[in-house]
UniProtKB/TrEMBL annotation:
Keywords recorded for this protein, A-Z: Amino-acid biosynthesis, ATP-binding, Cytoplasm, Histidine biosynthesis, Hydrolase, Ligase, Methionine biosynthesis, Multifunctional enzyme, NADP, Nucleotide-binding, One-carbon metabolism, Oxidoreductase, Purine biosynthesis
Source species: Danaus plexippus plexippus
Gene3D superfamilies: 1.10.8.770, Formyltetrahydrofolate synthetase, domain 3, Leucine Dehydrogenase, chain A, domain 1, NAD(P)-binding Rossmann-like Domain, P-loop containing nucleotide triphosphate hydrolases
Protein's name in the database: C-1-tetrahydrofolate synthase, cytoplasmic
Catalysed reactions, as listed in the record: (6R)-5,10-methylene-5,6,7,8-tetrahydrofolate + NADP(+) = (6R)-5,10-methenyltetrahydrofolate + NADPH; (6S)-5,6,7,8-tetrahydrofolate + formate + ATP = (6R)-10-formyltetrahydrofolate + ADP + phosphate; (6R)-5,10-methenyltetrahydrofolate + H2O = (6R)-10-formyltetrahydrofolate + H(+)
Pathway(s) served: One-carbon metabolism; tetrahydrofolate interconversion
């Protein structure tokens, strides 16, 4: 008889054709996606080069991007492991192989190296985890390529493996052992033989299926083979052959010419198992890529919520927070589709998220966009943060939706003052709440450092210009270093703004040198203050320059709280790093003696600011009490700036939440300030379309607007707030009605969340809900998330889902083309209920200057009290027809808005008589923080 040849070449070609079609479909369904294989080679053995060329050719034929990473023979084990770690972490690499043997002069543990390849990218199937899976019959990992090819070739014969006697000669971890395991799990009865096996030729004669991988040329003779057996020859051995130009030829471990006379099927060498090894490598690579695609495109995250054990009545916030053990942030990151290279951990419970996520997911459609605002609050706050967290817990942990909360980083001002932190409260919190409220990952400090560097540099520049003549000043600004004198890139930008096209410092005329060197900042018109992240009333007005070394050049200035820095607003509104850099460059920091603006770029400081802020560009990942994700980023002052978290954090969250997910973000204060700025400033800058507005209301606040007594932090509530009083409540409902109307003017459905407090009665809560439904709310629900977590906000979650399913009719309140005064009036009339707007003569003059400088097309960011719809914090309810007085106006050119000042708005809060400082301490035995809320 003559055996049928099992052509590995033809089978491999068929497999590659199938893979090519699969890769094409991936590209069609996910534009820009391509499977990628990294082939790591140490040294340059020629036999390895031959194998690698075959792999590269097959990958190109299929459409796989294959990268050949050549490493020197001198590489150390540690360096090789570092390289593999980078490849493991890269979301762009789907498969990794390390070409063996390693051609290294250093001692390297090859087993350690193969185990260092992530089991999810181990397309060679050599990681111990994948080998162990195969041994247990679990084929969910990757099967070693040569053994998988052997099984495929056997199956292509049409002969069933089940019930057959199989003999494997060879027990290597690469071929012999895994192929024996595979045959076993195909229900063959398997005997493994090796160099120490006695009576080997007798054993092989029992085999219906014979797999030879012993590495000895033509060891198995025809007499060893059972007639009609299937023979798979895995060997490839060079033997002398004078008839060949090379003087040798390749043969297998089986005497092929004898085997074909006995066996029913036999593989040739070459052209048998070899091509199949490459084909199965390609198959594993495509499988790895498809698994990643499935992971990142599955509609619902594999999120594992944390169970709440609620207590009634709820204990303090910090007791609740400590009663829950957070999951490792790396686990949460994996659940929501992040890759290790995109996550920089700060301990085990928080991590910075790389902006590269936006590039990787650029073609991913984003989730639904929800803003959470409030009615006009009491000084105690009405629970916007708590409601935001309760909502996403309900959506994510209870309704099985992808749901992100995006929040601002809290300032230390309120934390150590009276209001406390901003992590939410009760059973709807961000954890660890101590980390959230104290420093977090240092972004506010980075903003403070950048802000104060600019202030220090500007004052120094003023001093040096006042104390130096033109020539020395220019020479010091453009010094000769090692015989070379040149402008820095940022100085070239200043020259261009000045209309000077020269690039050689020596070529400037005396007039041009003066023009370049002197900013001529007017010390009385410096707009840039220093900042500190504390409430410090004694820094509201200071005098600087009193040391004798400053030669009498003193000036009055002040400190602001750090979150009021324009740099914080710039971080919050930047769409990418380049946009942030341009905004920082354009910040107006002072006026010169001719009244012209001096920008940060004129001071040559933009690059330095970028360096200090580098880590602050990235949002921080945390979690709620129920283990759902939270992104925390930026904290712009809600009065002077727009009071919203960053555009970058929202965009990352929407991409990760995917098309059917939800991203809820908070806007500072009520709809008149926070929500209006969210829509007209933030959404205009980002281009993102909101789908729903949630407005948080409380019975307590509405009673205050109905004429109730003053609510003061640290003071017991008046009896009208803890007892049922429907008459007082009904008088204050007009404030809720105004906020509903405000939301509807932007074309988004308004959902009212009635945040239940312990003393509220059913009659009061229902009165609020019914009023809201009759006065334009899409839905109005009573929420008990403070006491019950996400379970207490299920009705709110359902209402938000229903609202987001409606087509969005979102529109801005005003076009940017309107005049500054018309935009201000539009906001005052539509959002506040004002009848007229009144300006001082000074403000009118400043508006003319803003128009002349081209700032009139910027958005408007009103600086107004949050305690009233009017400019007077003592006026409650929803008055109409009043006069709104603008007593100052300035531009935040980098942030991209004009700030009209309504009344006196302090950018530096003060500490009260009895701040939270008295209650806060560190337990030196346990290391825990005591007294924090």
């Amino acid at each position: 008889m003559s055996a049928q040849v099992i052509s590995g070449t033809q089978t491999a070609r068929s497999i590659e054709n199938d893979l090519r079609q699969q890769v094409a479909v991936m590209g069609q369904q996910h534009p820009g996606f391509q499977p990628k294989l990294a082939i790591v080679q140490v040294g340059g053995r020629e036999d390895s080069n031959v194998y690698i060329r075959a792999k590269l050719k097959a990958a190109e034929n299929i459409g796989i991007a294959a990268e050949h990473i050549k490493l020197p023979r001198e590489i150390s084990q540690a360096e090789l492991l570092t390289k593999l770690t980078a490849l493991n972490d890269s979301p762009l690499v789907h498969g990794i192989i390390v070409q063996m043997p390693l051609d290294s002069v250093e001692k390297i543990d090859s087993h350690l190296i193969t185990d260092a390849v992530s089991s999810q990218k181990d397309v060679d199937g050599l990681n111990t985890e994948n080998e162990g899976r195969v041994a247990l019959g679990d084929m969910s990992g990757f099967v070693s390529c040569t053994p998988a090819g052997c099984i495929e070739l056997i199956k292509r014969t049409g002969i069933s493996i089940e019930g057959k006697q199989a003999v494997v000669i060879g027990r290597s971890r690469i071929v012999g052992t895994p192929v024996a395991e595979l045959l076993k799990w195909e229900n063959a009865t398997v005997t493994v033989c090796h160099s120490k096996t006695k009576n080997l030729s007798e054993i092989t004669k029992t085999a219906d299926i014979l797999v030879v991988a012993i590495g000895k040329a033509e060891m198995v003779r025809g007499s060893w083979i059972k007639p009609g057996a299937v023979v798979i020859d895995c060997g490839i051995n060079p033997i002398p052959d004078t008839s060949k130009p090379s003087g040798r030829r390749l043969v297998g471990d089986v005497a092929y010419s004898e085997a074909v006379q006995v066996a029913s099927h036999v593989t040739p060498v070459p052209g048998g198992v070899g091509p199949m090894t490459v084909a199965m490598l390609m198959k594993n690579t495509v499988l790895a890529a498809s698994r990643q695609l499935q992971r990142i495109s599955t509609p619902v995250w594999p999120l594992q919520p944390l169970r709440l054990s609620t207590v009634s009545p709820p204990p303090s916030d910090i007791v609740i927070a400590r009663s829950q053990k957070p999951k490792y942030i790396s686990k949460l990151a994996e659940e929501i589709g992040l890759f290790p290279s995109e996550v920089s951990q700060y301990g085990n419970t928080k991590a910075k998220i790389s902006l590269s996520v936006l590039d990787r997911l650029r073609d991913q459609r984003g989730g639904k966009y929800i803003v959470v605002a409030g009615i006009t609050p009491t000084p105690l706050g009405e629970g916007k943060s708590t409601t935001l967290i309760g909502l996403v817990q309900a959506l994510g942990a209870h309704r099985g939706r992808n749901a992100f909360a995006v929040m601002r980083q809290p300032s230390q001002g309120p934390t150590f003052g009276v209001k406390g932190g901003a992590a939410g409260g009760g059973y709807s919190q961000v954890i660890p709440m101590e980390d959230f409220n104290l420093h977090l990952t240092g972004d506010i400090h980075a903003v403070s450092a950048a802000n104060n560097l600019l202030a220090a540099h500007m004052d120094a520049r003023i001093f040096h210009e006042l104390t130096q003549k033109d020539g020395p000043l220019y020479d010091r600004l453009v010094p000769e270093i090692k015989g070379v004198r040149k402008f820095s890139p940022i100085q070239l930008r200043r020259l261009k703004r000045l209309g000077i096209e020269k690039t050689d410092p020596n070529a400037l005329t005396p007039e041009e040198r003066v023009k370049f060197a002197r900013l001529n900042i007017d010390p009385k018109k410096v707009m840039w203050n220093r900042v500190v992240d504390l409430n410090d009333r004694y820094l509201r007005k200071i005098t600087i320059g009193q040391s004798p070394t400053e030669k009498g050049f003193t000036r009055e200035t002040s400190f602001d709280i750090a979150v009021a820095s324009e740099i914080m607003a710039v971080l919050a509104l930047g769409k990418d790093v380049n946009d942030i850099k341009e905004r920082l460059a354009n910040m107006v920091v002072a006026l010169d003696t001719n009244g012209k603006p001096v920008i940060a770029d004129d001071l040559g400081i933009t690059g330095a600011l970028m360096v200090l802020l580098k880590d602050a560009f990235e949002p921080t990942l945390m979690q709620t009490l129920e283990g759902t994700p939270v992104l925390v980023h930026t904290g712009p002052f809600a009065n002077i700036a727009h009071g919203c978290s960053s555009i970058l954090a929202d965009k990352i969250a929407m991409k990760l939440a995917r098309e059917n997910g939800y991203v809820a973000t908070e806007a500072g204060f009520g709809s008149d300030i926070g929500m209006e700025k969210f829509f007209d400033i933030k959404c205009r800058s980002s281009g993102d379309t909101p789908h729903c507005a949630v407005i948080v209301s409380t019975v307590r606040a509405l009673k205050m607007h109905g004429g109730g007594p003053t609510v003061s932090p640290g003071q017991p509530l008046h009896s009208v707030y803890v007892q049922e009083n429907l008459e007082l409540l009904s008088k204050g409902l007009c404030n809720l009605g105004k906020h509903i109307s405000n939301g509807n003017k932007f074309g988004v459905p308004v959902v009212i969340a009635v945040n239940k407090h312990g003393n509220d009665t059913e009659a009061e809560l229902n009165m609020v809900r019914e009023y809201a439904l009759k006065n334009g709310a899409f839905r109005a629900v009573i929420c008990d998330h403070w006491a019950k977590g996400g379970a207490g906000a299920l009705e709110l979650a359902d209402a938000v889902v229903e609202a987001c399913d409606r087509p969005s009719n979102f529109q801005y309140l005003y076009p940017l083309e309107m005049t500054i005064q018309d935009k201000i009036k539009k906001i005052a009339v539509e959002m506040y209920g004002a009848g007229t707007v009144e300006y001082t003569d000074v403000v009118l003059e400043k508006i003319k200057v803003l128009n002349d400088r081209g700032y009139d097309k910027l958005a408007i960011c009103m600086a107004k009290t949050s305690n009233s719809l009017t400019g007077d914090p003592s006026i409650k309810g929803a008055p109409t027809g009043f006069t709104l007085r603008i007593n100052d106006i300035f531009v935040s050119a980098g942030a991209g808005f004009i700030v009209p000042m309504v009344g006196e708005i302090s950018k530096m809060p003060g500490l009260p008589t009895r701040p939270s400082i008295y209650d806060i301490d560190l337990n030196t035995e346990t290391g825990e923080i005591d007294g924090l809320f």
